[in-house]
Amino acid sequence: MASEITEAPEAFRRAALQAVGPWASDWRAAYTLARGSSDAAAAILAYEFMRETGRPVTSLPPSVFSLGEGVSLDDTLVLVVSQSGASEDLLRSARGARARGGHVVAITNVPGSPVEAEAQVCLPIGAGPELAVPATKTVVGAIGAGTALLSALVAGYAQRARAAAHVVAELGSQPHPHLAALRNALDSAQSVYVIGRDTGFGAAQEIALKLKECCALHAEAYSASEVLHGPLQLATEGLTVLMLDTGAAGTTDSLDVAEARLTEQDAVVHRVSPADVGAEGLTPAAAAALLLCLLYPVVHATALARGHDPDAPKTLSKVTRTT
């Protein structure tokens, strides 16, 4: 996992800069189909696609197709994100989405995977073999591949996305300046909230998942708005909070309010931003990808400090077989 983390920034750049042919604009909405870390990557892409295209993008549960008869998807774009491309429920979902009228795009890391075979188009992640059970470079690469597609859909986005990809590759391999303090905070934590907004919420979902699977640490992801409802009550019990700030327009005030309210209730808040390593001018999706690159080493160090093997969590396997 440690080696694969170091490859993540360049995996993002390669995937983001891949050539994608011209795309028609006659789709009315987009849907994502994914599970686990891939679903977090899909959530990041959903926010980016909605902002740039002005069209709705939302997640469909794979069970709609794997257990049910599916839904009508005429005139829609369907992104199936799967590092392995081998999960049975996503294979059924890709096949069902295409049969129900969706234009299916597979974002996968394994060439010739079953999911890829069911899609009209495949955008390769191209991160190379990933041996650790927890996905890292393929998650970041999936975000990059999605931004390559968006660059083909929205001409004005392409230049910004390319520039941001180079920044992620340049700065993503730097250790976070507060890595030791973050590791110490998580090592002693009993429960963690990971909070973000916009694409930062998708990144929060991924980091919360990594804390669970690598560190056996209870962690939940919330939007900075949603956490101020019922979840705020847990802050009264000595909560550790990791706040992911992408710097995206309109999100800072929301994060500031959440940080103040959580701190008032005695939660200990650690705020992380691309600005911590000098990154500027990123697209929100690239900012989320950079945050993952900066925080994966924190998760890895925390897992070791808590006595866990981050490469092979004992209850998990690389390809999760679900229906």
Automatic annotation (TrEMBL):
Record-level GO BP terms: carbohydrate derivative metabolic process
Gene3D superfamilies attached to this UniProt entry: Glucose-6-phosphate isomerase like protein, domain 1
Keywords for this protein: Aminotransferase, Repeat, Transferase
One Pfam assignment: SIS
InterPro entries: GlmS/AgaS_SIS, GlmS/FrlB_SIS, SIS_dom, SIS_dom_sf
Positions of the SIS domain: 19-163, 182-313
GO molecular function: carbohydrate derivative binding; transaminase activity
Superkingdom as given in the UniProt entry: Bacteria
Coiled-coil region(s): none
Protein name: SIS domain-containing protein
Protein source organism: Rubellimicrobium rubrum
